[in-house]
Design a protein that fits this description.
This protein has two domains: about 300 residues, 3-Layer(bba) Sandwich (FAD/NAD(P)-binding domain); about 120 residues, FAD/NAD(P)-binding domain (3-Layer(bba) Sandwich), CATH 3.50.50.60. A hairpin with a 4-residue loop joins strand 4 and strand 5. The longest helix is centred in the C-terminal third of the chain and has 21 residues. Helices cover about 30% and strands about 15% of the residues. With about 550 residues, it is α/β, with parallel strands linked by helices. Helix 1 runs parallel beside helix 14 and helix 9 packs antiparallel against helix 10. The relative contact order is 0.14. The structure holds ligand NA7.
């Protein structure tokens, strides 16, 4: 008899439909996973809770939404035809274009027939007697799958803030991560934006152009670098395409964050003040996420980091005319880069507009929301519409929403109660044949996500082919290997300045969430090498159970 205990307590007949693999999510990870597995001849069903493919780009439709990685690099590399034929319009593609690209990929590789939209996976229970997963979707249907791959995304579980009176508000309330499909027009409205992370930093300048009055409620100021977005010319695209083999190789193997850029060979304190300043100026003028690559020690040496942080604080003071507002906008409680750096188009300059006001809710927290106002520091700020740019239950939030039960009925949520534990970010001990793409313990959100997605998908696909070819029925992370990896992830993180910020990397934005640095900060190149070596050594650290052994155990 199986050791699993369905929570309903009722015994159920096995589901009628069986797949080799169920993939949860049809974002960039789920789509490529499907493509690879199909190529290997596996039967696959992808369940997607959204009404179409695209994952995070399906949900995050807020004004000004763009990727913070340049389009030519934030794109699949697995098909040269695809990367040669797709024309990105701008240096940083806007959300509608990225969504169009996702749809193009789904059509071009004929993925749709195996993707079931509008279908949330609610539950996945491992059947130890059969070494397979019993998967239940929200419509109550059940299927069997030998393997489950969670391609649920890291920033996919939008988080509503717990603010008193929010439900009393009479105007429209929007969350940036769950934006309506129809156009939202703020013309003539008084709008309040709560939060000043990347989503707010991108949307505030756009909303300010429409709203009659925009009030931004800021708890923590963030570092932001100009995006310097611009249309891409055909010549620029061609130059990029010609260099694609080297750009992609570098992004995979050498860049820490999966982004092609020049590598720094010295630290910030190795240069004199003038030299350093001119390097920061050059990066500021160039714009973009690679600002942090100007020196090689900004993430590890506080004194070095301070030089970059001071430079950006000074820029904010130069841009923002009102000194008090400028001071409030200058980040001062975390090292630059210890939260994902934001990139913007005119964010700081927006506060020079007469219709934009910044309210510091660090010193005067929001007390409550009423029918038509946000009250902070005893003062009512009247608004007609509210935009919650309050972020996500990142990395683990979407996984946690699924009732996942592994060996002995243990749930993944129970296992991860004190923080996520994985081996290589790919599997968690006690949950055989369950893989996670860009999960906690892998470089994931610290990188160009598509680079990390492709690496994980390729590794998992190769692994499944290996299991099939070697007659392996179940694969599982060994606890010792997992413990060692979790310790390593922590050790590497604590050698940097990252844990000094109350970031969503640390789970710090969710009250009660264990504060553990979740992504692996060792760099995508190093990480890829580790994963490849593990595979080359016969999947070291993973237990493999052969089908024969299970059959023998079943008859004895
Ligand atoms: P973030 O970066 O998590 O930002 C959320 C913002 O919302 C941040 O400024 C928070 O302040 C603020 N926040 C959250 N809850 C509250 C409450 N209850 N009251 C007031 N303010 C609040 O999410 P984003 O969507 O902007 O960006 C996520 C990632 O997407 C980003 O890193 C890019 O990689 C793309 P806090 O900092 O917690 O004081």
């Amino acid at each position: 008899m199986s050791a699993l205990q369905p929570s309903s307590g009722k015994s159920q007949a096995a589901p009628a439909t069986t797949y080799d693999v169920v993939v949860v999510g049809a974002g960039f990870a789920g789509m490529y996973m499907l493509h690879r597995l199909r190529g290997l001849g596996f039967s696959v069903r992808v369940y997607e809770q959204g009404g179409d493919v695209g994952g995070t780009w399906y949900w995050n439709r807020y004004p000004g939404a763009r990727c913070d990685v340049e389009s030519m690099q934030y794109s699949y590399s697995f098909s040269d035809e695809l990367q040669q034929e797709w024309d990105w319009s701008e240096r940083y593609a806007p959300q509608p274009e990225i969504l169009k690209y996702a749809n193009h990929v789904a059509d071009r590789f004929k993925l749709r027939s195996d993707i079931q939209l509008n279908t949330r996976v609610d539950r996945a229970v491992f059947d130890e007697s059969a070494n397979c997963w019993d998967v239940t979707t929200a419509d109550g249907k059940r299927v069997n799958a030998k393997y489950v791959v969670l391609a649920t995304g890291c920033l996919s579980n939008a988080r509503m803030p717990d603010i008193k009176g929010l439900s009393e508000f009479k105007g429209k309330v929007y969350h940036t991560g769950h934006w309506p499909h129809e156009a939202v027009d703020f013309t003539g409205l008084r709008v309040g934006v709560i939060g000043t992370g990347s989503s707010a930093i991108q949307s505030v300048p756009v909303i300010a152009e429409q709203a009659s009055q925009l009030t931004v409620f800021q708890r923590t100021p963030n570092f932001s670098i100009p995006a310097r977005n611009a249309a891409l010319t055909p010549e620029e695209r061609e130059a990029f395409r010609a260099k694609y083999p080297e750009i992609r190789r570098f992004a995979r193997e050498e860049a820490r964050n999966g982004i092609y850029t020049d590598m720094p060979d010295r630290g910030a304190l190795d240069d004199g003040d003038n030299e350093r300043r001119s390097k920061y100026e050059a990066r500021w003028a160039r714009g973009g996420l690679t600002f942090m690559s100007v020196y090689n020690n900004l993430a590890i040496d506080k004194a070095a980091n301070d030089t970059a942080a001071d430079f950006v604080r000074q820029k904010i003071a130069e841009i923002v005319k009102d000194p008090e507002t400028a001071k409030l906008l200058q980040p001062n409680n975390h090292p630059i880069g210890s939260k994902r750096i934001c990139i913007d188009t005119d964010y700081f300059a927006t506060f020079n507009r007469p219709n934009v006001k910044l309210v510091d809710i660090r010193s005067n927290p929001i007390e409550q929301i009423s029918a038509n106002a946000v009250r902070a520091g005893g003062k009512d700020y009247e608004v007609d519409a509210l935009v919650l740019a309050t972020g996500f239950d990142a990395m683990t939030g979407s996984v946690a929403k699924i009732d996942i039960r592994g060996r002995n009925g243990l749930t993944l949520n129970q296992k991860w109660a004190e923080g996520p534990k994985t081996y290589l970010g790919l599997m968690s001990a006690g949950f055989p044949n369950l893989f996670i793409i860009t999960g906690p313990g892998s470089p994931s959100v610290l990188s160009n996500m598509i680079v990390s997605i492709e690496q994980h998908v390729d590794w998992i696909a190769d692994c499944l082919a290996y299991m099939r070819n070697s007659g392996v029925d179940a694969m599982e992370a060994r606890k010792e290997a997992e413990d060692k990896w979790v310790a390593h992830v922590n050790e590497v993180a604590h050698a940097t300045l990252y844990p000094q910020a109350n970031s969503w990397y640390m789970g710090a934005n969710i009250p009660g969430k264990p504060q553990i640095f979740m992504p692996y900060i060792g760099g995508v190149g190093v990480y890829r090498q580790i994963c490849n070596e593990v595979a080359a050594n016969g999947y070291e650290g993973f237990a493999m159970e052969a089908a024969e052994e299970r059959q023998k155990a079943a008859v004895s």
